[in-house]
Amino acid sequence: MIGYLNLILRLVIWFLLTANLSVANIIIGVSIALLLPHRHKAAGALKDWLRALGEVLVAIPQAYIEAFEIILRPHNEEDVTLERVKPRRTPGLIFLDIFLITFTPKTIVLKYHEDGWYEVHRVRRRKKA
């Protein structure tokens, strides 16, 4: 089951990059998704994938809310923090985590550290003293 989710993730990325749903592009996308190297181990659990997909659904309205907050109230303060990668993450789940963080307007992942950390840039409203 996890192999199918990785294949679907690769196809979605391909279609987002090409923005073309022609028959030829679908054949090319499926071919590339199958030819890309992958692990044959089932490293990720189905519940981790379902939880990540649920977080994607929650992130969409959150992104709109944050965009309106930035428009209506200026965010003048920024900082860079390190966030711990959740345990037992496959490369596909790590990609989804980075996508979720970067999808919202107030945050962006600057770097993924191989030892299990995301370097995240955030903008915030300045706290009144």
Please write out the topology.
Elements: H1 2-18, H2 23-35, H3 46-72, E1 77-84, H4 91-103, E2 107-113, E3 117-124
Antiparallel strand pairs: 1-3, 2-3
Helix pairs in contact: 1-2, 3-4
What is the straight-line distance between the termini? 53 Å
| Physical arrangement of strands within the biggest beta sheet | 1-3-2
* Element-by-element helix/strand order: HHHEHEE
Sheet/helix structural class = alpha+beta
Biggest beta sheet summary:
3 strands, antiparallel
Cα gyration radius (Å): 17 Å
Identify the overall geometry: globular
Measured as a percent range, the helix fraction is 40-55%
Would you identify the regions where 5 or more consecutive residues have pLDDT less than 50? none
Number of domains: 2
**Overall mean pLDDT score?**
84
Tally of helical segments? 4
Would you count the extended β strands for me? 3
How much strand? 15-25%
Any key phrases for this structure?
Cation:proton antiporter, 18% strand, alpha+beta, 129 residues, three-stranded antiparallel sheet, single chain, globular
Give an account of the 3D structure:
With 129 residues, this protein is of the alpha+beta class. It has helices at residues 2-18, 23-35, 46-72, 91-103; strands at residues 77-84, 107-113, 117-124. β2 (107-113) and β3 (117-124) form a beta hairpin.
